[in-house]
Amino acid sequence: MLYYDYLASPLGLVEVTASEQGVVAVTFCDMPRQPVQPQRLVQEAKRQLIAYFAQELSEFDLPLAATGTVFQQQVWQALTTVPYGQTASYGDIAKAINNPKGVRAVGLANGKNPIAIIVPCHRIIGANGTLTGYAGGLDKKAWLLAHEGAAFR
């Protein structure tokens, strides 16, 4: 069973989805899409996101339960190692998962990350330091990086 709740963030409405095992998704949305079903992991994720937006939290501590291929899971796990306020390139992530030629595949997996902010795909930028795609939009990516004090062009 999946549980849903919503958070009004500085970037707009955020939908938080969890199962009994962990957080399944954090997505930006325009309006609620599911009935609110409070549950302990959903509430804890919301609490941590509120603290993140208030600059009181820089590292999330939540069980994660996103569904994806083995490769996507490797990429998403590697994303969680990029520290708050820092960035990495797609090439850096490809090297971190011992697949240095898989830069394009890393980009595709990064784009399919269902757990925005908590799994920090926004911290991945182009090798030249410029912003590249973000499912939530480049404006949100720029805001998140600026919020964390990360350098980018």
Automatic annotation (TrEMBL):
Localization per Swiss-Prot or TrEMBL: Cytoplasm
Active site: 121 (nucleophile)
Pfam families, alphabetized: DNA_binding_1 (PF01035), Methyltransf_1N (PF02870)
Domain Methylated-DNA-[protein]-cysteine S-methyltransferase DNA binding: 71-150
Enzymatic reactions: a 6-O-methyl-2'-deoxyguanosine in DNA + L-cysteinyl-[protein] = S-methyl-L-cysteinyl-[protein] + a 2'-deoxyguanosine in DNA; a 4-O-methyl-thymidine in DNA + L-cysteinyl-[protein] = a thymidine in DNA + S-methyl-L-cysteinyl-[protein]
PROSITE patterns: MGMT (PS00374)
InterPro entries according to UniProt: MethylDNA_cys_MeTrfase_AS, MethylDNA_cys_MeTrfase_DNA-bd, MethylDNA_cys_MeTrfase_DNAb, MethylG_MeTrfase_N, MGMT, MGMT_N_sf, WH-like_DNA-bd_sf
Name of the top EC class for this enzyme: transferase
GO molecular function: methyltransferase activity
Entry EC number(s): 2.1.1.63
UniProt-listed GO biological process terms: methylation
Main location: cytoplasm
Family label: Belongs to the MGMT family.
Family annotation (HAMAP family): OGT
Note: This enzyme catalyzes only one turnover and therefore is not strictly catalytic. According to one definition, an enzyme is a biocatalyst that acts repeatedly and over many reaction cycles.
PANTHER family: METHYLATED-DNA--PROTEIN-CYSTEINE METHYLTRANSFERASE
The protein's name: Methylated-DNA--protein-cysteine methyltransferase
